[in-house]
Amino acid sequence: MLVLAGGVFTARGLAQSPSSSDLPAVPLDIGLTLPATDLSVERARSSVRAQLEEGGAASGDFQSATLPVNPLAPGATSVGSKMCVSCHAVEQTQFAHTQHARAFKAGAMGEPADTTCEACHGPGSAHAANPADVGTIIRFTSGSKTPVSAQTGACLNCHAAGAREHWLGSVHEARGLSCSDCHNPMSRASPEGLLAKSSINEVCSTCHQDVRAKFNRRSHMPLPEGQMSCTDCHNPHGTLTRPLLKTDTVNTTCYSCHAEKRGPFLFEHAPVRGSCLNCHDPHGSNQQTLLSMPMPMLCQQCHTMTRHPNDLQTRVGLGNGPAVSVDERLIGRSCLTCHTNVHGSNNPSGARYHK
After folding, report:
1. Long-range contacts of range 193-199, CB-CB < 8 Å, 24 or more positions apart?
2. CA-to-CA distance for 247 and 15, rounded, in angstroms?
């Protein structure tokens, strides 16, 4: 039972709102908000038995998974992993050290038919009868005859919930990417995640080379130093935002680390509250503190020289410009020398962000 602002939410719906004195202090069980995932041996064995005998299983992510259907071989039936290993001994040796292998082996322990290989590649009777026809088995390669939807469907058969619930309709799905473009479940190339390369950042930079180049700039996120990864801000499996942010907005993502910039402030800076990207390039910049352009040119994108001498500040007036043209107002931190709290101020005299 959850206590909401409008009343008590029970299994049968929203009950009539009681008085505050009648509401017991019920702690929220975080386990209720997470998808069911139980990889114990007994539950895994029952899952395999249900797949073989009934074609289905109990509710849950891994428990409800069935053998994937190959649209190019709809009438194929299960033949067991021993048939697969008789030809694919090398693949079996590589696969034996992975997390999937341990999970599937635990589930098939003591069962008459081991469907470890077919749990991902689909029933193999058609492939065993005609190995030359590459379409008779689900193959996880970009050049295979298997449609991308069938490849991802085999993975989502178990991994549909949690961080992957927004995969369908995401930018990566719309571009025709499959799970095997980033993951390699057949070998242990990474410490975790069954990635196709040794780290998350290397996988992402395979396509996003322009973003990777920004991390080589003078000011950058500590990603090259290994202190963070792309998935600290993005969810590559899909979110409700186009840049695949893990939160609803850019600012909320930034506030997860830069909590001091959240506020609330008595005097708020409108472009700052609108989006951090109005001033910063989060992947890297050649300016200080990830600014998209140098000061004071950045401020002059919005602010005229009101209450200042009526001249436009240029790069020539910066501290590294010619000695005869250096402007004293631009020495040091430029506009921030006076307007120190540019992200917002709680001082009664901070309307101009001086304090």
Report:
1. 194/98, 194/99, 194/100, 199/229
2. 31
pLDDT at 281: 96
Is residue 182 within 8 A of residue 253, CB to CB? The reply is no
The closest of 256, 199, 259 to 229, measured between CA atoms, is 199
Q: Which ranges of 89-147 would DSSP assign to H, the alpha helix?
A: 89-95, 99-108, 118-121, 125-129
CB 194 within 8 A of CB 100: yes
Cβ count within 10 A of residue 323: 5
Percent of the chain at pLDDT exceeding 70? 73
- Please list the residues that pair with 267 across neighbouring strands: 345
Pairwise CA distance, residues 254 & 352, whole Å: 24
Q: In this predicted structure, what is the pLDDT of residue 323?
A: 65
213 pLDDT tier (thresholds 50, 70, 90): very high
CA-to-CA distance for 315 and 296, rounded, in angstroms? 9
CB contact at 8 A, 171 and 177: no
Pairwise CA distance, residues 242 & 115, whole Å: 38
Looking at residue 279, its pLDDT comes to 96
Confidence at residue 44, expressed as pLDDT on a 0 to 100 scale: 41
Give the residue among 322, 327, 258 at the shortest CA–CA distance from 295.
Answer: 327
Rounded to two decimals, the pTM is 0.73
Give the separation between CA 261 and CA 244, rounded to whole angstroms.
Answer: 22
Q: What confidence tens digit (pLDDT) does each residue in 132-186 have?
A: 988 899 999 877 889 999 999 999 988 887 888 899 889 999 999 999 999 998 8
